[in-house]
Design a protein that fits this description.
Layout (H helix, E strand, L loop, with lengths): L2 H4 L1 H4 L3 E2 L1 H12 L24 E2 L1 H14 L5 H7 L7 H8 L4 H10 L1 H4 L3 E6 L6 E7 L7 H20 L7 E3 L9 H7 L2 E3 L5 E5 L13 H14 L8 H12 L7 H7 L4 H10 L4 H19 L4 H7 L5 H12 L3 H6 L2
Helix pairs in contact: 3-4, 5-9, 6-7, 6-11, 12-15, 13-14, 16-17
Length: 343
């Protein structure tokens, strides 16, 4: 049986596009076209630069596989990872930077991993009092991209940790569950520690003494604000299939045009029949999604702006204000005016 069909972790669109965006920028620096990396996927090159877009592991891994075939450098993961700074981690980086201690920052980083766009599952192993281990597990057994995933993860984590506590930070040891590549010496140069290959797990071992290190940018108010924003970016509600998320994202971007099933199918390079079938298989439907996205956006505008109700309706695809009022009452049980007055 196809694993993709039974493991929702592979098809749930909950991963930020940071890594894919970085790969595309790297390709453009080399003068390499990357639009074909997205062929056959409900995803386009322009979307990976949108902070609100989420993709599934299956989508991301296919893009990574295609990118690794095209990019000229063997150590793509190391190169991409060591370019990262706290700023590249966005709100998550800010939340970690303003934490009280390095240990608090580590907990925040693990708690909000989806916000960072990581393609690996992470856990902290503190079973040995002499070491603290960050354990990274691949979501699927894909040997071809495992070195890239580990290189990007551990190198970017290293840059993040050095940004938090200073350049003196270095792991005790790095253990990787794949054979040493031809450029293995670059690992030791970057991580400044012992690196072991062909190990049972992918682990970065750190001295627990780092955990109590106070962070110079600690600010309780900023920390609370950043954490609230991170929580807002976490996946909410039932897990959504990748096709459902793709359709919702395209609908939201084109709401004012009132796109139909054919318009969205064309954007996804699918026939209307295929898109309809895929949505049904995901337990959804086009009209339901269209109404959900219109309702969500209308409520945002009614509560967060002073736009006249007719303009709110136009923003979500209604040319007639009366039609918008009727639809809104059907969606929410309230009139737009009543929604605007709610506390």
């Amino acid at each position: 049986m196809n694993r993709d069909a039974v493991d929702p972790r592979l098809t749930t669109a909950s991963i930020a596009t940071n890594i894919l965006s970085g790969l595309c920028l790297m390709a453009e620096e080399h003068g390499i076209a990357c639009e074909h990396w997205f062929a056959g996927l409900p995803l386009a090159r322009a979307q990976v630069d949108d902070a609100s877009v989420r993709v599934s592991y299956r989508q991301a891994s296919r893009v990574v596989q295609r990118a690794l075939r095209d990019l000229p450098d063997a150590d793509v993961g190391l190169r991409l990872g060591r370019q990262q700074t706290i700023g590249n981690f966005g709100l998550l980086g800010l939340a970690m930077m303003t934490a009280r201690t390095f240990g608090d920052a580590v907990v925040i980083g693990l708690q909000y991993t989806p916000v960072s766009g990581s393609l690996m599952d992470l856990e902290l192993d503190a079973s040995d009092p002499r070491t603290l281990a960050l354990v990274a597990s691949p979501r699927a057994p894909e040997d071809a991209i495992l070195p890239f995933l580990c290189e990007e993860l551990f190198a970017s984590t290293l840059m993040l940790c050095r940004g938090l506590v200073g350049p003196a930070f270095r792991p005790l040891r790095l253990e990787l569950a794949y054979p040493a590549p031809a450029y293995a010496s670059e690992y030791e140069t970057l991580f400044e520690c012992e690196v072991r290959f062909d190990m049972p797990r992918n682990r970065e071992l750190v001295d627990p003494a780092w955990l109590s290190r106070r962070l110079p940018a600690y600010n309780p108010v900023s920390a609370q604000q950043a954490l609230a924003l991170c929580r807002a970016q976490m996946p909410r509600g039932p897990a959504s299939d990748e096709i459902v998320v793709a359709v919702r994202q395209l609908l939201r971007a084109r709401l004012h045009e009132n796109p139909g099933l054919g318009d969205i199918a064309a954007e996804l390079h699918l026939t209307e029949r295929t898109l309809r079938r895929q949505l049904v298989a995901a337990g959804s439907g086009f009209r339901r999604l269209h109404d959900e996205v219109r309702s969500e956006r209308a409520r945002e505008l009614l509560r967060g702006s002073d736009l006249p109700i007719a303009q709110v309706g136009a923003s979500v695809g209604f040319r007639d204000a009366r039609e918008f009022r009727r639809a809104f009452k059907r969606w929410t049980g309230r009139t737009p005016s009543a929604m605007r007055l709610m506390p």
